[in-house]
Amino acid sequence: MRGAHMWSYGPIPTAITAVAYSFDGSKVYIGAGDKIVMVNASTGQYDRAIVTPHGQITSIAFSRDGTRFATGGTDNYVIVWTSKGKPLFKYPHGSSIQKLAFAPDSGNLLSVAVDDFGYYQSTSDSQTVSKTRLPSKGTTCAFSNYSDLFAVACADGEILVRDGDGDKVRTYKGEGPAAALVFMMPPGSASGVGSPTSTPYTSQPLSRSMSHSMSQAGLAKGSDTTSELLIAANVGMSMALYEPHLGDGALSIERDTLVSIPLQMQVYDRYLLVTGVDGRVHLYTHRGHHLITVCNVTGHQAAMEASLAEQGAEGVEAAKSMKERENYLYGLDVCPTRPEFVISSSSGAVVCFSGEFKVVHALYETYYAQRTSLTAVRVRNMATGHRLTIDTELTEYISKVAVYKGLVAVLSGRKVKVFSLTERGSRNSPPALADPLGATALKGKRPPPIDTTDHALVHRLVAELDAASLGSDCNLICLTAEHLVVCSGSQVRCIPTVISKTA
C-alpha cells in the first residue's frame, strides 16, 4: 500500500486542524479559520463555505446517519448543524474545544475541551448537555463501535472510560498524554474489520439499512463486544492496548514503537493510520507494529510551494509563508465509502490520497501463494486442496511473493525469507489428482474425494536474505531452485539463496 496523491487544497494563512468526510463520502469538510469549507471529495473542487462564530475551528465530526455534523472551536463553543449547514443547537465549554465524536448508533455527541468534557444527548423531545470537570487538560476522545462506552484522554496520562449513560466504568493510567484514541475490534473477530458495522476502510458505521443486514447476520449490536480494544497513541511514541469491557490494566504497552510523535489516528481496514509531526502518514498493526510509511506530505508541500511561486507576487508570499511553517499533520479522516483519506497540516493545506491494498500473489504449477493480510501469506496446492498460512515468522510488511516447486519466497520488511513446502506423510512431491483435467466430472460423474488427512501441507524456513541487496527499486522477485531473481526496472539480477540442504 502506497498513498497516491489525488488532490490538494490551500494553503490558507492558518493551520488546518479539522477535516472530515461527509457520511456518504461525497464531500470533505475543512475547518479553514472560522469557515467550514466544503469541497468535492473526488476532485477537491470548491463547493461552498459556511462562516461560523468559532474564530478558529478545531474539530469536526459527523453523525452516523449523516443528518447532522458538529463543529468546535477556540471560542469555547460546540455547534450542532444539519447536513445542509443550518445551526440546530449550541452549547459552551469553559475553554477551547479539543475533540468531538458522535456515538455510532445515535445523535449523542461527546465534546472534550481543555478543562472539561461535555455529553450532548438528543432525543425527539429534548436536547441536554452534561459537563464533567477533568483532572488535567483534555486531549482527545472516542466512542466505542457499539456506543456502549466512550473514552476521554487527559494530559496527565489518565484515560477515563464511561458507559453510554455517562457513568464511570474505569480509569486507566497511561504512559503519558494520549494524542489519539480509537476503539477497534481485533483482527480475526467476527467483523473482520475495525468495527462491527463498518466499511472495509474505516471504523465509521454504515447506513441504517446495511447495519440492520449485518445485525441479522450476527455481526452488529448483540454480538460479543467484550473483545473490543481501546488503543491509545501516546505523545511519548508508545502505543497502549486496553480491554475496556474486561480489565483495569493495560493489555500491552509497546514502547518506542511509533516512528514519530503522533497527532491523529484512524482505523483503516484491520490496521491503523497514524499522522505525526514528521509530515508523514504511517500504517501500524493494532499492536503498534510499524508496517510502512504510506505517504510523505512534505514532498507534496514542496510541489504546492513551487506552484504558488508561479502565480505572481501574492503567490510568492504565500509560498514563503507555507515554507516557514512546520508541516505537522493535525487532521486525518478516512473516507467511509472508498479507500481514500485526507490529511490537514499546520502549513494550511489539505491533501487527499488513495490507499488501496494491492493483491500480492504468485503462481507455479499447482502452487498458489497470496498475501492475505499485510503480515501473512496463504499457500495452496490447488491439485490437492491442501493449504497453510505462514504468519508466525512474518512480522513485517509483505510486499512481494514468489513460488517455485516446493519453495516460497516472501519479501517481508528488510528480509527475504524462503520457506520449503512439504506434504506431511510424503517424502515426494504432493500427490496429483487422479483426474486433473476434470474429465470424469465432464461425464457427469463425481471425481474421487481428495485425502487431506495424510498429506497436510507444512512449511519450514530454509533461507534468509537481506532485502538491501535487492535495491530500493525492486518491482518483482522470482524464485528458482538455487537463486532469487530480482527485477529492477529493465535490469535482472540473480542472487544465490543458499537454501539449507536439510529442507
TrEMBL record:
- Alphabetically ordered keywords of this record: Cell projection, Cilium, Repeat, WD repeat
The membrane spanning regions, by residue number, are none
Tell me the InterPro entries matching this sequence: Beta-prop_IFT122_1st, Beta-prop_IFT122_2nd, Ift122/121, WD40/YVTN_repeat-like_dom_sf, WD40_repeat_dom_sf, WD40_rpt
PROSITE patterns named among the record's database cross-references: WD_REPEATS_2 (PS50082), WD_REPEATS_REGION (PS50294)
The UniProt record lists the IFT122 first beta-propeller domain at 15-172
Which cellular component terms (GO) are annotated to the entry?
Answer: intraciliary transport particle A; non-motile cilium
GO biological process: what's one of them? protein localization to cilium
WD repeat intervals: 50-81
Per UniProt, subcellular location reads as: Cell projection, Cilium
- Has keyword Protein biosynthesis? no
Q: Does the keyword Repeat apply?
A: yes
Q: Name one Pfam family in it.
A: Beta-prop_IFT122_1st
Domain called IFT122 second beta-propeller: residue spans: 361-425
User: What name does this protein carry?
Assistant: Intraflagellar transport protein 122 homolog
In which organism is this protein found?
Kipferlia bialata
